[in-house]
Each structure stands twice: as C-alpha cells, then as structure tokens.
Amino acid sequence: MKAIIGLVIALVIVVGGYLVYQKYAAIQQAATGPAKEIVSESMTRTGNTWDITFVSKFDAPIDKVWDAFTHPERIKEFAPENVMQAELVKEEGNTKQIRVVGKSDVLPPGFKIQDIVTEYTLYPAEHRIVSKTIDFKLADIDSEYRFEPTPDGKTVLRFKQTAKQKAATIVESLQKGALREQYIVQVRAANKALGLVPAEAKREAG
C-alpha cells in the first residue's frame, strides 16, 4: 500500500513538474520567438518603458492589408481564441475608439483577462495608423503602423510602440511576452481577414 501511495505521489510530482515546464516554455516562446508573423523585431526596456519595433510582411497588396487593419472592431471575428469581445465605442471622422476584452496565454492568473479601450487615428493618404490606449490598467501604450508596398505587389508593415508599464508586479519576461503576443494576434487576425493560408497548409492542401 505504501508503495502504491509513493508511486501516486511521484506521478503527481512528475506531472506537475511537466505542466510547470510547459507553461515556462510557452512564456519563453512568446517572449523570444521565433514567430512566423514577425520578420524582424527589437524590444528594449528602460525603467518601466518598453520601446518596440516589429516588421511583418503580408502576401497581399497594400490596399487590402490597409483595409484589414482599419477595422479593429472586427478582431473577434478573426481571433476568437484570443478576443472575447470587441466593439466600436465611438467614431468621429478618421478616429475610432474600440473596446476589446481579450485573454492572454502569457500573463499569470489575475491578469489573463484584459479590458482595453484604444483610440485609432487613420491616415489613408499615408497608409498610416496611430493608436493610444485610453483605458488600460497595465500600461499606457502608443503605437504606429506604417504600411509600404513592395515591388512584387505585397505589403510590409513597420510597427513601432512605446509601452509604459503600470503593473510593477508582473515580471519583465511576462511583460515582454504579453506585448509581443498582442501584436502577433493582430497580424494573425489580419491574415485571416485577408484569406491568406500559411505555406504549410497550402502544401498539405496541394
């Protein structure tokens, strides 16, 4: 009987350790990559402020990519696994306020569900979007999206962001992972809106 109890305890320890390792590996993956959605990146922290740049490429012309990014209120439609709710709060001219309730795979319990109101200002002639959070408990975030056409008819997105963290209780690796995850979700949603299929899926389908 003692042997059986000992075996059960050992099994629980092994399974628990494996689950902890899986969670740690997922956090490291989110924080450091690689991610197929990102061509290049830079993430640096000074004090409580992150300066971020990401570059992504889309296999679609600039007008279609622009259209996919100018409707952030539709993100739940294309990223239901990460977004629980998305709604247009207000729209005036070229400015929109969007409320998104999302869940993060990276952040710890108590922080996983995030309720964010973001203001987006669109500059169609420049193919540029600037955004800022106006209600978010973890950080004040200012972002810029610049879309550029490529000679082969595709599109490059150059993304810059400054995020001033408010929650000192979240460790650096988790902050980094959450910011990176937030961007990747947007790129994945845009790819779905564009009807783009990953190369792996194309090979399997063909």
Primary descriptors:
alpha+beta; Alpha-D-Glucose-1,6-Bisphosphate, Chain A, domain 4; single chain; 37% strand; globular; 206 residues; 8 strands; eight-stranded antiparallel sheet
Q: Could you describe the 3D structure shown?
A:
This protein has 206 residues and is an alpha+beta fold. It has a single domain, classed as Alpha-D-Glucose-1,6-Bisphosphate, Chain A, domain 4 (2-Layer Sandwich). The protein is built from five helices and eight strands, in the order αββααββββββαα. The protein has helices at residues 2-32, 62-69, 75-78, 172-193, 199-205; strands at 40-46, 49-58, 83-92, 95-103, 113-123, 128-135, 139-149, 155-165. The chain has an eight-stranded antiparallel beta sheet. A hairpin with a 2-residue loop joins strand 3 (83-92) and strand 4 (95-103). Helix 1 (2-32) packs across helix 4 (172-193). The protein is globular. The termini are far apart. The model is unreliable at 14-33 and 199-206 (pLDDT under 50).
